[in-house]
Amino acid sequence: MRHVLIVDDSRLQRRILGASLRKWGFVITEADSAERALEICHETPPDLVLSDWMMPGMSGIEFCREFRRMPRENYGYFILLTSKSDKAEIADGLDSGADDFLTKPVNPGELRARISAGERILQMERELNAKNRLVNTTLGELRALYELLDNDLIEAKKLQQSLVSDRHRDYGTAEVSMLLRSSGHVGGDLVGTFSVCDTRIGLYGIDVSGHGISSALMTARLAGYLSGAAPEQNVALRRLPDGSFAPRPPGQTIAALNDLFLSELDTEHYFTLLLADVDLQTGRVVMAQAGHPYPAVQRADGSVEMVGRGGLPVGLIPGAEFEEFEVHLAPGDRLMIHSDGVTECADQNGKLLDDAGLALMLGELRSTHATACLESLMWKLADFAGNDSFSDDVSAILMEIKPILPTG
After folding, report:
1. CA-CA 20 to 30 A from 29: which of 45, 96, 230, 368?
2. Which residues is 82 bridged to in the sheet?
3. Closest Cα to residue 392, out of 357, 335, 352?
4. Which residue, among 23, 82, 94, has the nearest Cα to 4 in the 3D structure?
5. Which CATH class is domain 163-401?
6. Phi then psi for 8, rounded to 5 degrees?
């Protein structure tokens, strides 16, 4: 039941109002002054207040101002009882916080109507508060859930980054550096290398369609198919009769992955791939490209050329074939395999970096090597984009043939 506080210095007026309100089912508290009414409001905050305007001591309008200053959990509806009809005085009452007015002597029918209007407003306010509490509770639960999910994603990012745990490897005549940066916690890019024998290594760059958890799970699955730690599971290798391993031609490897992907994995994803077979003794690099960006070859003199055949992504067409091509790297030359997060990085006007922009950056970095070169490339990409929050995953693997140092 609603609690109504009647404030009037006239005992008779309080009895008349109280009789009607009790008949309508309200709980009534009476006060003969505004000062006593404030005490009651502190002790038991009323839902509605009926207060006379003119009273000895504190007036009804002063009481209304004090009532509005009081901290409350719920709204209190305030009706001033007055014989005043001047519009300026009525406006002053509204400015002081009054919700409504009743002209004395009070008509019971009008009193009931004004009280009902106040009840409707209070009911809407209570319902709104209840909904806000539900929203706040739900938001709290969502925040807790988000924190748990965020923690899981942070761990997932660590696990994905661990797939490229060794960011720099020295193979004697050459060194390989790797970069992997996801646009979110986890992403669909992956770069890696695996050893075939003392003089042969494999390099690869992968970009799974989409972003986020499902793409990251796919990269983890593909990392197993090109594992350097488990050569017997690596589809890019074939076992020889003596138990050793030899590289399978990159085009055949990608075709095998395409068949495997379409036959065994029920997914809407596809991926691009650049796979390279590197002979460290001769500098001969045989590659196959499946929709991945054209790799960059930078010669010892700093000149840059983009090489490749293009090709279809893996996982789109059964029986697709992937053409091979080769380059020869001399001492001082280097090869970079990168994802489209590099060449499709856009500036603030939407212009893409493209192959030409990447070639210019590599030209500026011709004297910077290994992981320092890749880190500097990231800085240049951030400068080009205007911020370091890239919209796509960025990955790259850089192989550099060591220059021949002068003797004597």
Report:
1. 96
2. 103
3. 352
4. 23
5. alpha beta
6. -165, 140
Name every residue whose Cβ is closer than 8 Å to that of residue 386 and which is 6 or more positions away in sequence.
347, 348
Contact status, residue 205 vs residue 339, Cβ threshold 8 Å:
yes
CATH fold match for the domains 3-131 and 163-401: no
Q: Per-residue pLDDT tens, the chain, 408 aa: give them.
A: 789 999 999 999 999 999 999 999 999 999 999 999 999 999 999 999 999 998 999 999 999 999 999 998 889 999 998 876 667 777 788 888 889 988 888 888 999 999 999 999 999 988 898 898 888 888 887 877 767 666 655 555 556 556 565 789 999 999 999 998 877 655 678 899 999 988 999 999 999 887 667 777 788 788 888 887 788 889 999 999 988 889 999 999 999 999 988 887 667 788 999 999 999 999 999 999 999 999 999 999 999 999 998 889 999 999 999 999 999 999 999 999 999 999 999 999 999 999 999 999 999 999 999 999 999 999 999 999 998 888 888 999 999 999 976 655
Please name which of 17, 69, 19, 22 lies closest in space to residue 42, comparing C-alpha atoms.
Answer: 69
**Which tokens sit at 277?**
């077979």
User: Whole-model pTM?
Assistant: 0.65
- Topology of the domain covering 3-131: Rossmann fold (3.40.50)
Show the tokens assigned to 225: 């198919």
Cα distances from 106 to residues 50, 56, 109, 114, 242, in angstroms, run 11, 20, 9, 11, 110
Domain boundaries, the chain: 3-131, 163-401
